[in-house]
Write a structure and sequence with these properties.
This protein is of the alpha/beta class and 331 residues long. It contains 11 helices and 12 strands. Bound molecules: beta-D-fucofuranose. The site of beta-D-fucofuranose has 13 residues, from helix 2 and strand 9.
């Protein structure tokens, strides 16, 4: 073969082998063995949220067979829609998302469905009627969390001999329109309607943050300090409300002060419970990652899945909580 011909043949061989490499089936390239998951998270508004993000990242890790694309929506539904649309364009294998609010997801979920991507809703839910647009749900039953708090309050007031007394309640709500807010709010609102001696003196949104709750509680205290109960929809809000009340010289305590009720039972929230400042803390379990992993692995194997997984959740009373209970927890 002439030298020129040899060079041309070599070039063709290199080009052909280059093409062949490209055409290898996806599964033969090691990085493509990973299951690609796009996770659209609400934000980083609370300690609960941080624990939830860590749980998802740990369960959907590379060692566990995943490539995780994480997006923080900064508490804005429009960011979440944009993130989900990007996941669809990236042709991810699964979309996991915690809906900031209950409504407004039908068209984007329809797009995911048309693209053949399984969607797993976590933490909060979307309004009823769109169950055909997602594959599974892993999260909490917020209405039942609220009912636990209300039942505890009724029992505690009865034990204190205050069952018939006029009880003034301040209600600090979470992000309006989120299922966590809707479920927890509906329980206390109904209880106030039923107990004619319970009086809602103020109802404000604390947006699930310590800073916002502090601000709204400060303003409420300018109006009235005759408060028996403060029902906060998460630990951040409880801490903010307690900061504001203590600054005004109010004492937060179940027996001789303001009764503070909270949700989440994060470590800091439980320390406040042990200190007696949060009278009741209803747990909301953020460790959802392992269940999401389980659902995905079952779907990959073509197995039947549990369509709705509700987390197991306890409640903590300031009169019975111990340091050992706090130390034995994973978050
Ligand atoms: O209670 C709150 C958070 O959706 C359960 O969101 C979650 C709530 C949680 O920011 O702390």
């Amino acid at each position: 073969m002439k030298k020129g011909m040899l060079i041309i043949s070599l070039c063709i061989a290199v080009l052909v082998s280059g093409c062949m490499k490209e055409e290898l089936p996806a599964a033969e390239s090691p990085e493509n063995d990973l299951i690609v998951v796009g996770f659209s998270q609400v934000g980083a508004e609370s300690e609960w949220r941080v624990a939830n993000t860590e749980s998802m990242k740990a369960a959907l890790s590379e060692e566990n067979g995943y490539e995780l694309i994480y997006d923080d929506a900064r508490n804005k539904p429009e960011n979440q829609i944009r993130a989900i649309r990007t996941f669809i364009q990236q042709e991810v294998d699964y979309i996991v998302f915690s809906p900031i609010v209950e409504t407004g997801w039908d068209s984007i979920l329809q797009e995911a469905k048309e693209a053949g991507i399984n969607v797993i809703v976590t933490d909060r839910y979307i309004e009823p009627g769109y169950e055909n647009l997602f594959t599974a749900f892993v999260g909490s039953d917020f209405r039942s969390e609220g009912e636990k708090a209300v039942a505890w309050l009724e029992k505690t007031l009865a034990e204190q001999g205050r069952a018939g007394e006029n009880i003034t309640i301040v209600h600090i709500q979470g992000t309006m329109g989120s299922s966590a807010q809707i479920g927890r709010s509906s329980a206390i609102e109904e209880a106030i309607a039923e107990n004619t001696n319970w009086d809602m003196v103020s109802q404000e949104c604390g947006d699930f943050t310590r800073a916002k709750a502090y601000e709204v509680m400060k303003a409420i205290l300018q109006e009235t300090q005759d408060i028996d109960v403060v029902y906060c929809e998460n630990d951040g809000e409880a801490l903010g409300a307690i900061d504001a009340m203590e600054e005004e010289g109010l004492v937060c305590n179940v027996n001789d002060g303001v009764i503070v009720i909270s949700f989440d039972a994060t470590r800091l929230g439980l320390e406040y419970c042990l200190a007696g400042k949060i009278a009741l803390n209803v747990e909301c379990n953020p460790l959802q990652g392992p269940y999401v992993d389980e659902v995905i692995k079952q779907l990959e194997q073509g197995e039947t899945i549990e369509r709705e997984k509700y987390m197991e959740e306890a409640e903590f009373d300031s009169l019975t909580i111990t340091q050992e209970m706090i130390d034995s927890r994973d978050y």
